[in-house]
């Protein structure tokens, strides 16, 4: 029995004798099936020809990303606090070198993931560090490898250790989540956004989409709700899902400015 991994989205599936017939994550209109058709791999194959790059991105925050790039290509973030470390978002590759590097930084006390495109090999990571996985219940149907370590949370926020807070924004997915790290950006606060709030090429701005690869926008009222969800929190910096997708300063004004521009492009006004 093998836990097959989708080559296009990186999702690891429940154990089976043969690869799944299809990947529901990729067949959803927010994603896509690769142009060469559905393809599968497994963790052992990834471990043989890929490795993880691990580097500090600011004090107390370490990035973990796979080289050569695999699937969607996101990198995870390890947030270090005095009460334990949070692995934010996830990647498909985990190996002994990665486990040793993470343990040297204090291990993982919990895993939280912004949305299903980054569920990847979350159960493998959970078992390596004997830690719970926090997912919003609204995205429960997208879990392809169920496991007792997965804890579905409800409501609009979930408080974690070290002052960390998970915030349900919705939008890209119904349970789309960001994480507030109050100690980030030299104590000015940072928001870890995955691509629920997408850091774009002009890093003075962010954007909001239902589907990024297929360019399906969100309605104005959903964008307003995302802004309202993060409004109570202080943050100067936003960390997107890839190494260079970072708004280094004035992150909160960037979210407001971007929402205003987005809604104006749809013919509306912000605020309503």
Describe this structure in words.
The protein is of the alpha+beta class. It has a single domain (5-265), classed as Ribonuclease Z/Hydroxyacylglutathione hydrolase-like (Metallo-beta-lactamase, Chain A), CATH 3.60.15.10. The protein has 7 helices and 19 strands. It has helices spanning 24-27, 43-49, 96-104, 122-129, 184-187, 220-230, 251-265, and strands at 5-6, 40-41, 51-58, 61-67, 75-81, 84-88, 110-112, 133-136, 150-153, 157-159, 165-168, 177-181, 190-194, 198-199, 206-207, 209-211, 216-217, 237-240, 246-247. A 7-stranded mixed sheet has the order 3-4-5-6-7-8-9. Strand 14 (198-199) and strand 15 (206-207) form a beta hairpin. Helix 6 (220-230) packs antiparallel against helix 7. The longest helix is centred in the last third of the chain and has 15 residues, at 251-265. The protein is globular. The protein starts with a strand and ends in a 7-residue tail after the last helix. The model has no long low-confidence stretch (mean pLDDT 97).
């Amino acid at each position: 029995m093998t836990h097959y991994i989708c080559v296009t989205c990186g999702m690891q599936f429940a154990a089976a004798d043969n690869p799944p017939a299809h990947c529901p994550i990729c067949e959803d209109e927010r994603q896509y099936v690769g142009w060469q058709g559905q393809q599968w791999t497994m963790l052992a194959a990834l471990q043989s020809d890929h490795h993880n790059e691990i580097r500090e991105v600011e004090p107390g925050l370490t990035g973990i990303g796979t080289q050569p790039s695999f699937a969607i290509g996101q990198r995870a973030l390890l947030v270090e606090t005095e009460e334990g470390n949070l692995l934010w978002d996830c990647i498909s590759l985990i190996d002994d070198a990665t486990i040793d590097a993470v343990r040297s930084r204090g291990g993982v006390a919990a895993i939280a993931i912004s949305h299903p495109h980054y569920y990847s090999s979350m159960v493998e990571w959970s078992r390596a560090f004997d830690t719970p996985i926090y997912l919003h219940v609204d995205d429960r149907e997208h879990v392809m490898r169920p496991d007792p370590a997965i804890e579905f949370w409800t409501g609009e926020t979930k408080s974690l250790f070290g002052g960390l807070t998970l915030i349900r924004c919705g939008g890209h997915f119904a349970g789309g989540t960001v994480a507030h790290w109050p100690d980030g950006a030299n104590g000015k606060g940072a928001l870890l956004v995955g691509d629920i709030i997408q850091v774009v090429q002009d890093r003075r701005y962010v954007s909001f989409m239902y589907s990024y690869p297929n360019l399906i926008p969100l309605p104005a009222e959903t964008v307003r709700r995302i802004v309202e969800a993060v409004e109570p929190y202080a943050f100067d910096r936003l960390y997107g899902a890839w190494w260079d997708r970072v708004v280094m300063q004035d992150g909160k004004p960037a979210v407001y400015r971007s929402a205003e521009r987005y809604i104006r492009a749809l013919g509306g006004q912000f605020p309503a």
